[in-house]
Specification:
The chain has about 600 residues and is α/β, with parallel strands linked by helices. The chain folds into three domains: about 20-200, Jelly Rolls (Sandwich); about 205-300, Immunoglobulin-like (Sandwich), CATH 2.60.40; about 305-610, TIM Barrel, CATH 3.20.20. It has nine helices and 31 strands. The strands form seven sheets. It has an eight-stranded parallel β-barrel, surrounded by five helices.
């Protein structure tokens, strides 16, 4: 009997281990620098048409789908599965992606990485049937060293399991309806929504991360640069090129880090009027032998505040622009480069100088474009709502998730001069969306204060804030550099009564500034409008009403010298959950339609902002 029991246990262990695999978590530092091709490095994009299979019962790992998909469909990467398939609009559970990638023997002796632009919400990765790693958290990239997994001069199978399941300890938070769609106000697109890359770096040593902190005094600019490397190399050099000049300095590493301060004479500052970029090139090696190199573009500028203004390069700047979403027909939340270019053209057409990456970090090309075009960005984490439960274990997981997002976002976007502020949360509340979700005010404040402090330690060069709604605790504004509010008087409150709504808006602005003595930015305001719907007298959902409400808010803001920015909600109509206030499943507050046709409000903003 004892022998039979032992054999039974061994059989169970053997059966479990046939599909149980170890998945290491991705190291955020591995994705800090975007893949680059130069004299030393090589990179290949492997986006395109992949194999795809739905895994409703989550049986793929047990059945070893990582060894090759059968009875699959085809899917475009990047792109959301919700928009590509007729039967998966509201699907959030498990699904599998598969493609093949060719790794040339010319890369032998190098370190090979795979970088996935994002996976909503969680992913596990296999190469040739072997477990590589996992990442949890949407909207930001992750990377793995796959050197030991690849086969040379042949096709390698890449398998990725993705799921977008809601859990209380994930971000963004928010309860879900019976149709399994979020009740936060944008569509929870799922899948591989950004590009996937495979690339090679030198195995002997390579540049792992570069952090550039700019400043200036008079005509002299300063770049304080921290370089992190991997491998056995003791030194190298850094070259700053721009504005007709070049500065070169040697660097020496200690414990894989090198810190150097470089002065730039006759500095040309980055600003919306002159978005000038310098090239920062880091070279590892000595005079005879170059081991690795990496270059990036950045700008010299400073961001600060006084009691009434955001200051760019020491001068007041007024932020005029929009909240946005990564959302477009067919692509869903997937990156669409022609739409990206068109959006910047339309923003400039209206006279906007800024936008906010509501409610999550966007694809990196948005930031590259903004650097070149002189558009200022408020970079936002996916911490929407923040609290949905009073369970201590889940709250601690929420806190860890928020800090993970913060670290990954800053690691990726820290060298973009266009990013002038970090938004740590959109409309957070200390009350859960379900009755049992309430937590103490003291706990919520302490957690958020620690969260804010972490942001300032990770990046002391930018402003830090959050976007407060009616239900957000206003006392948290004493932690922020700028008081940012989302207000819809005349829409959600005082429905149809713009005049009385603006009076309440004006009164609240005065009270907030008197209490906190900080600049105020209105990060969301506006009204829904159905394109082509008109009325002789402005009525809700007409284009005339949208224009009149936006005009009233902008006019009132002009009377307050402490209002430092106005962002209309939203740039374009976007897909969200179905409800009786979301006609067709869309939020219609865009001044452009979802396919980027201007409403009357877009023309009005152009008439005002272009001045």
């Amino acid at each position: 009997m004892k022998m039979k029991y032992t054999i039974y246990i061994l059989l169970l262990l053997f059966t479990f281990n046939t599909y149980a695999q170890e998945f290491k978590k991705s190291d955020p530092k591995d994705m800090a620098l975007f893949p680059q091709r130069n004299e030393i490095r090589d990179v290949r994009k492997i986006s395109g048409i992949w194999k795809f299979k739905k895994d409703t019962d989550n049986k793929g790992i047990e059945e070893k789908w990582f060894n090759g998909l059968e009875k699959y469909r085809q899917i475009a990467v990047p792109g959301s599965w919700n928009e590509q398939f007729t039967d998966m609009r509201e699907y959030r559970d498990w699904a599998w992606y598969e493609t093949e990638m060719f790794i040339p023997s010319a890369w032998k002796g190098e370190r090979i990485f795979i970088r996935i632009g994002e996976a909503s919400y969680a992913a596990k990765v296999w190469i040739n049937g072997k477990a590589v790693g996992m990442h949890e958290g949407a909207h930001l990239p992750f990377a793995f060293d796959i050197s030991s997994f690849v086969k040379w001069d042949t096709k390698n199978r890449l398998s990725i399991q993705v799921e977008n399941i809601y859990k209380d300890d994930r971000m963004p938070s928010g309860a879900f309806s019976s149709t399994n769609i979020s009740d936060y106000d944008y569509f929870p697109y799922a899948g591989l929504n950004r590009d996937v890359w495979v690339y090679a770096v030198p195995a002997e040593a390579y540049v792992k991360d570069i952090t550039v902190k700019p400043s200036f005094k008079g005509k002299k600019g300063v770049l304080d640069v921290t370089i992190e490397k991997e491998g056995r190399i003791s030194g190298g050099k850094i070259i700053i090129t721009g504005n007709g000049g070049q500065v070169e300095k040697r660097i020496k590493f200690s414990d894989n880090l090198a810190n150097i301060s470089i002065e730039i004479p006759d500095v040309r500052l980055w600003s919306p009027d002159d978005p000038y970029l310098y090239e920062v090139k880091v070279i590892l090696g000595d005079k005879k032998n170059t081991i690795d190199m990496y270059s990036l573009k950045t700008g010299v500028r400073t961001v600060s505040v006084d009691k009434n203004h955001i200051l760019l390069n020491g001068k007041p700047v007024f932020l005029k622009g929009f909240g946005k979403h990564e959302d477009f027909p067919i692509y869903g939340g997937g990156i669409n480069y022609p739409v990206l270019v068109a959006d910047f053209e339309l923003m400039k057409w209206t006279g906007a100088n800024s936008f906010r990456t509501s409610n999550y970090p966007y694809d990196e090309e948005y930031y590259n474009m903004a650097d070149r075009e002189g558009i200022m960005i408020i970079g936002e984490t996916p911490a929407v709502g923040m609290f949905t439960t009073n369970d201590t274990t889940q709250l601690l997981k929420n806190e860890a998730r928020c800090k993970q997002y913060l670290q990954e976002m800053i690691l990726r976007d820290k060298n973009h001069p266009s990013v002038i502020m970090w938004s740590l949360a959109n409309e957070p509340t200390e009350k859960g969306r379900r009755p049992e979700g309430d937590i103490s005010k003291e706990y919520a404040y302490k957690m958020f204060a620690d969260y804010m402090q972490t942001a300032k330690e990770l990046d002391p060069t930018r402003l830090v804030m959050y976007m407060g709604s009616f239900t957000s605790p206003s006392e948290w504004f004493d932690l922020a550099d700028v008081v940012c509010i989302n207000r819809f008087y005349g829409w959600y409150q005082e429905n149809g009564r713009i005049g009385s709504g603006v009076k309440l808006f004006s009164k609240e602005l005065d009270e907030l500034h008197a209490k906190y003595n900080k600049p105020i930015m209105v990060t969301e305001f506006g009204a829904g409008a159905i394109a082509g719907m008109h009325a002789v007298q402005p009525e809700m959902f007409t284009e005339e009403y949208q224009v009149e409400l936006i005009k009233a808010y902008l006019d009132e803001a002009k009377t307050k010298d402490f209002v430092t920015g106005m962002h209309v909600w939203n740039f374009a109509d976007f897909k969200t959950n179905q409800s009786i206030i979301r006609l067709g499943g869309y939020n219609l507050k865009g001044v452009f339609t979802r396919d980027r046709r201007p409403k009357a409000a877009a023309h009005y903003l152009r008439s005002v902002w272009k001045k």
